[in-house]
Amino acid sequence: MHSPMFSLEVFPPKRTSPVGTIYDTLDGLQGLDPDFISVTYGTGKSSDRTLTARIAHTVSEYGIPSVAHLTAQYLNKDDVDQALDMFEQAKVSGVLALRGDRIDGAEPAGVFEHASDLAAYIRQQRPGMKIYGACYPEKHPQAATLEEDIDNLKKKVDAGVTHLISQLFYDNEDFLRFLDKARAAGVDAPIEAGIMPVMNAKSVLNMSSKCQSKIPEKLSIMLDKWGSDKALLKEAGIAYASEQICDLVARGVDGVHLYTMNHPCVSRRIWSNVKPFFV
């Protein structure tokens, strides 16, 4: 176990890609020795649960603890029971309980309206299973204020979440401000800082808009300067993420969760830069 913690996120291959491409990703991540790898989850279809379980099992076969994402909105209790059975068979070390994004034209099941509802149900059905949760340093887009969002986060922890992973952010001061407020509100679970390397200007702007995460001036200048040159932007993005992580570790964060976007070469470069700061 690293101190602070160091973990990764991967996602199942796109439906148009062979499932076996996940082996390329995991092979490329060998040597990073993360404390766990989380595996994302789709919109709520049965096939998504199966694929997440398969990838999580594959991660476990590499000797790395796996955490399976599970989104709540479009699931009923039978769906969740089925997912938990599959995840247990896949030998996951925990489940990341999420509400999930709204899907245009799809009607939520109305059973688990919030991630805290899903966390409470998992805690009831699987008392021994570790439950992870998400948090939002710049507040959830649908929360009126950061304070309101942290009140909801406390409910999530009270429902059974014992480990938190943050949404991406590009300004460490936003994360540190959130961390102080969360601790003051009694949120005592470990909180990992979610870092997403900048590799594509359009993706950064889209993600920033979707998550309502601000782009600080120095990142904006970087995007203006190298946004049209993918190779140079990738190099700048590796440097930016590495600097973020070094600063966060120096300030004593509980851990760092690196969103790999299934680009192991970028993750390896970042890990090479920051590895000395993780014991």
TrEMBL record:
<dbReference type="InterPro" id="IPR004620">
    <property type="entry name" value="MTHF_reductase_bac"/>
</dbReference>
<keyword id="KW-0520">NAD</keyword>
<dbReference type="InterPro" id="IPR003171">
    <property type="entry name" value="Mehydrof_redctse-like"/>
</dbReference>
<comment type="similarity">
    <text>Belongs to the methylenetetrahydrofolate reductase family.</text>
</comment>
<keyword id="KW-0285">Flavoprotein</keyword>
<keyword id="KW-0028">Amino-acid biosynthesis</keyword>
<keyword id="KW-0486">Methionine biosynthesis</keyword>
<keyword id="KW-0274">FAD</keyword>
<keyword id="KW-0560">Oxidoreductase</keyword>
<dbReference type="Pfam" id="PF02219">
    <property type="entry name" value="MTHFR"/>
</dbReference>
<protein>
    <recommendedName>
        <fullName>Methylenetetrahydrofolate reductase</fullName>
        <ecNumber>1.5.1.54</ecNumber>
    </recommendedName>
</protein>
<comment type="pathway">
    <text>Amino-acid biosynthesis; L-methionine biosynthesis via de novo pathway.</text>
</comment>
<comment type="pathway">
    <text>One-carbon metabolism; tetrahydrofolate interconversion.</text>
</comment>
<dbReference type="InterPro" id="IPR029041">
    <property type="entry name" value="FAD-linked_oxidoreductase-like"/>
</dbReference>
<dbReference type="GO" id="GO:0004489">
    <property type="term" value="F:methylenetetrahydrofolate reductase [NAD(P)H] activity"/>
</dbReference>
